[in-house]
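Quick question, first post here. What does this chain look like in 3D?
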Amino acid sequence: MVQEEVISVEKIYKIILTTLVCLFILLGFVGHHFWVSSLNSLEPQSDESITVQIPRGSSRMAISKTLEDDGVIKSAFVFNYYAKFRSNKTFLQGNYELSPAMSVDEILERIQK
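> Answer (accepted):
Ran it through. Tokens below.
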């Protein structure tokens, strides 16, 4: 009887561990896909031009949120961290003609000095 309980506990432990590993792998794939898709252009075929205003003294997060709200990028979160780790340049104030067809790198090139 005790032997059967040990086997049952071991089976439950293996099932839980396997499930957690599978969920971790799935979350990794989903997170990677979201990150990569957020760095690409939002609408590659778009001809639309959107005027985005970056006020003086805006933080990187505020600029990211503005770009997301204006429909230029997919994720302010991804843009914010990508800009932080990709470039040490500062953002320039002003009005910019941007497009949902632009990648994050193209947008950063245009609004940073």
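Strands lie at 50-54, 94-98.
The CA atoms of residues 46 and 101 lie 5 Å apart.
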